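User: Thanks for the earlier help. One more: 4,4'-diapophytoene synthase. Can you show the sequence and predicted structure together?

Assistant: Of course, both are below.
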Amino acid sequence: MTIEQDYEYCRQIIKHHSKTFYYGFSTLPREEANAVYAIYTFCRTADDLVDRPGTAADKEAALEKLMQDIDCFEKGQHRDTAMWRALADVRERFPLDIAMLRKQVAGQQMDIAFRQPDTLEALYLYSSHVAGSVGELLYPILAGEDTREGRQAADSLGIAMQLTNILRDIGEDYREHQRIYIPAELMQHYGYTQEQIQHHEITTAFTALWESLAEDAEARYEAFYPLITTYKRTCRKPLLTAAMVYAEILEEVRKHHYDCLTQRNKVSLMNKNRISQRAVRYLKEVEA
């Protein structure tokens, strides 16, 4: 296979699994878009190793093998697969933080021996591993620089997106994986129980609990938007659009009366196009 075919394989992965990310990032310049596709494919691969059928021991062994593959990749001895060939090409063109690949896998390992986080801090730590790591991987590629402040902002954006995932998928995560990502201390504070999730009870306590995390995510999105000018000009609209569309998922849950227990709420293509135009208007203001 050619490197173009390797990237096409990765493009199909993100197109299939994340229409929101693909909608935004597919409009990046070609080299940056290919880098995003390859990195997304790595993260999807790690995630799928945990969510596929099998014993905990099998999943742990698969992730440990992936860690070994990262070690080989760091030494320039990558596996001969489309994903690893694409990542090797990305590494020749852009900075690629190998530590963030390991952090991503470490985050997936947390899901194998899963226990509900006790505190918000524990949820932030998990979210930083599985999503903040993606932000830090993409930041130097899309920004063309690598600063501490930029990494912190990219990590926080990743946490916002992971909180959004969690708030969108409360019912699905419990139904399919018996996982509750909402911190136990928050559920206790608002007086909402695991049994109520199981019975799909959308109560005043549930909406207050949900909104407390949604407002956290939205504050992170709002803090990130002005920082879009620290990214390459050609990468600003795609990244901003992806972030704004992701934030809109929270509004979709609200529109459906907070029912994230029996359905998955999505942003329509028409709405994505509207948000894309809003991103253009926002950029005109901050770039003026």
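User: Great, one quick takeaway?

Assistant: The longest helix spans residues 120-143.
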